[in-house]
Amino acid sequence: MWRTKSNLILTLLVTILVLVLSIGCAVPQVEITPAPAPGPTPAPAPAEPPTPINPAWTPPPTAPSGNTSLALPNIADVVAKVKPSVVAITTEVVSLDFFNRSFTQQGAGSGWILDENGIIVTNNHVVEGALTITVTMDDGSTFTVDQSSVFTDGLNDLAIIKIDAQNLPAVSVGDSNTLRVGEWVVAIGNALGQGIRATEGIISRQGVSIPVAPGQTLSDLIETTAAINPGNSGGPLVNLAGEVIGITSAKIATVGVEGMGYAISTETAIPIIEELVTNGYVIRPWLGVVLYTVDQFAIARYELAVESGVLITQVVQDSPADRAGLKPGDVITRFAGTEIATAEDMIRAIHLSEIGQKTAVTYWRGKAEYDTEVTPIESPPH
Fold first, then answer.
1. pTM metric for this prediction
2. In this structure, what is the dihedral angle of CA atoms 318, 299, 212, 348, given to the nearest 10 degrees?
3. Which residues are catalytic?
4. What is the pLDDT of residue 229?
5. Euclidean distance between the first and final Cα of the chain, in Å?
């Protein structure tokens, strides 16, 4: 009896288990209806054609082949003519190291023979502060320069050197006023102190002004693509006739900048050189002041009442400025009818004034504005 019941229970359990498994494993059948095929894309509407500029236009005729090229300049002839007149200049200058100890440093520059009796033109920064100056000619002969035979004009970065020599191959001076942008020029000089070499280029700009030091701007410069390197300073920039039309002086040395060298034009240089030869220094109108361009530091430091002009920091005793009543701390805002915003503006205005002529000056002292007159005199020898 018990066995029969057991078999019945076992059979019932197996039946239930089969039913449960059958239900759990059942997979529903889903009928997938395929998506309809896409229809054809409609063609875009035709665009309106653009209105032509000139339906009757035709390209200009091609120039005849005989006029499309010109002979390149013969640079070799120019160099052969000028190179004997170019000199290498070597200097020794005392400098200070990080620990304020003095040491002798060598410098290199260039120059060119202006007069057969030993007058050589170069840059002021080539010879400035030099203890010794040695001039080496193209033929290898050397001359030691007496310090009393060096005459400089720091404002225009020009200098002349007189050596004891005669019958030197002087170079011709050309007219820089006749130059045109695009003309070929040649720079010759003692590049990198490794001897006289030549580089060619064109005139790329004229009448350029660039700042070279605080309070000093060189003006009327010739910009050229001829390579200018350290040691070229003071050397000649010549035209294709072998005439000096500039004195190489500076370059822009910045990453990514090429072909921007500068030369002082002969129009600017020759009158100054003449004064250095005849007077030993350049005579200019002189006031006897030291100037500083007004900036935010000066405004805060000295509690200035103006935002532009030139601050007088020093006045030479018994100078024209002293006689006119100007004092350190005054700010000049107008000179000879010209608005003054920077020290360069003031220096330029002074040089344009006339020696012995009274000139109107407007200045601020504290919170008040005043007018006076100053009479420039000849600049003292220096």
1. 0.72
2. -50
3. 125, 157, 233
4. 87
5. 144
